[in-house]
Design a protein that fits this description.
The structure is a homodimer of 137-residue chains. By secondary structure, the first copy, chain A, is mostly helical. Chain A folds into two domains: 90 residues, Winged helix-like DNA-binding domain superfamily/Winged helix DNA-binding domain (Arc Repressor Mutant, subunit A, Orthogonal Bundle), CATH 1.10.10.10; 45 residues, no CATH class. Chain A is 55% helix and 11% strand. The first copy, chain A, has eight helices and two strands, in the order ααααββαααα. Chain A has a two-stranded antiparallel ribbon with strand order 1-2. In chain A, helix 7 crosses helix 8. The longest helix of chain A is centred in the last third of the chain and has 14 residues. Chain A is globular, with a radius of gyration of 16 Å. Chain A starts with 13 loop residues before the first helix and ends with a helix. The N terminus of chain A is likely disordered. Chains A and B meet through helix 1, helix 2 and helix 6 of A and helix 1, helix 2 and helix 6 of B. Chain B binds a DNA duplex (30 and 30 nucleotides) through helix 3, helix 4 and strand 2.
Chain lengths: 137, 137
DNA sequence: CAATCTACTTGCATTTTACAAGTAGATTGG
DNA sequence: CCAATCTACTTGTAAAATGCAAGTAGATTG
């Protein structure tokens, strides 16, 4: 055989696995932008208020592609643009993101999380998940 | 006034807030160890299979303390040991961790997540949460 | 009271991140 | 049609975080 794929996993623990793929300060912000902010272009992500650097963004998009969380295709209406979107594996991150939002909203005194959205998630998690998934088809 | 507390938050978004506190490869492994593996001593965390370095562990414990997620106290039975445990804010991370586990277990072909546990979480989330919280009192 | 245990700290090499600038192909305006 | 602009990047470099090895200080054990 050529040579064994350099295996970067630290253990077979599911928490560790998730962190290996998503454990940094930027990756999940891209996922958030797609899930909750209807962003789809490179420039959209770049202009998010947290101010991701362009080299970091390019790196994270590539890693998200390599791990099967995201893909992209040419914008049919605009040849120099690419449309980024989540795969099923990426959409499956929605429940986790919702819990991150609930935790952040609860424990950050100056959170900007809309009260209505938080209430909706608490009251009807599955419904919110279904709605967001459908919107993204 | 003295001088404004150097504010490291990138935005008021709850996802960003959560990532500011927990977005790295190690912090949540300590939380995992406490929630699911009954670990409580410095040496326990050090000996986790992912192999955290001692300086990183000390740093993360301090940050978790600063952000009110964890505290510690002297072991009454052993004066050179400290018992680390989660605060309410830390226990509130449980639902998020459970979603990380579900996602990791679903998408990692070689996951070590026990099938029984995954089934229990899927079938009775709230029950599992209650049980684990009670165990940690 | 010496060896060991426990929870760290320190120093340094390597890796990752942040910031600024540059590039290449597609599109738009005159 | 062609110069300016738009879009999605790449490159270079300084700063910061991480990883690894070794050392330390107080409590405990034999």
């Amino acid at each position: 055989m050529p040579h064994p794929a350099k295996d970067c996993r630290r253990s077979d623990c599911p928490v560790s696995f998730t962190l290996d793929l998503l454990g940094d300060k930027w990756t999940l912000l891209v996922v958030r932008d797609i899930l909750f902010k209807d962003k789809k272009f490179y420039g959209d992500f770049l202009s998010s208020e947290e101010g991701i650097a362009t080299n970091i963004l390019a790196d994270r998009l590539e890693k998200l592609d390599q791990t099967g969380i995201l893909t992209w295709e040419k914008d049919p209406n605009h040849g120099s643009k690419y449309i980024y979107h989540l795969t099923e594996k990426g959409l499956d991150l929605l429940p986790m993101l919702l819990e991150m939002i609930l935790w952040g909203a609860k424990h950050d005194p100056q959170t900007a999380a809309p009260r209505k959205f938080i209430q909706a998630v608490k009251k009807n998690r599955e419904g919110v998940i279904r709605e967001i998934r459908e919107k993204l088809r």
